[in-house]
Amino acid sequence: MKSILYILLIAMVFSSCKQEDCITCIAESQSGKIIETRLACDSDSEYLRGFINGFKDKHRANDSTIVHCAYSE
To answer: What DSSP assignment string belongs to 9-72?
Structure first.
C-alpha cells in the first residue's frame, strides 16, 4: 500500500511541473541572409511575448530586416 502511495505522489509531483515553451526568432535581410538567431525557453508566456517584442524592436529600425519568430517543439 505504501509503495502505491509513493508512486502516486511521484506521479503527482511530475505532472504538476510547468513545462517550458521555446521561441526561436530569426532576423534576415531581404536577400535572405540570416543576420541574427535567438532562442528563449521559459514556462512564463509573458516573458516569451516580451522576448519576441524585444527582438522585433531591436530590428525595427532597419527597414530591410525581416523578423520571423516561431514556437519550437
So the answer is: HHHHHHHHSPPPEEEEEEEEETTS-EEEEEEEEES-HHHHHHHHHHHHHHHHT-TTEEEEEEEE
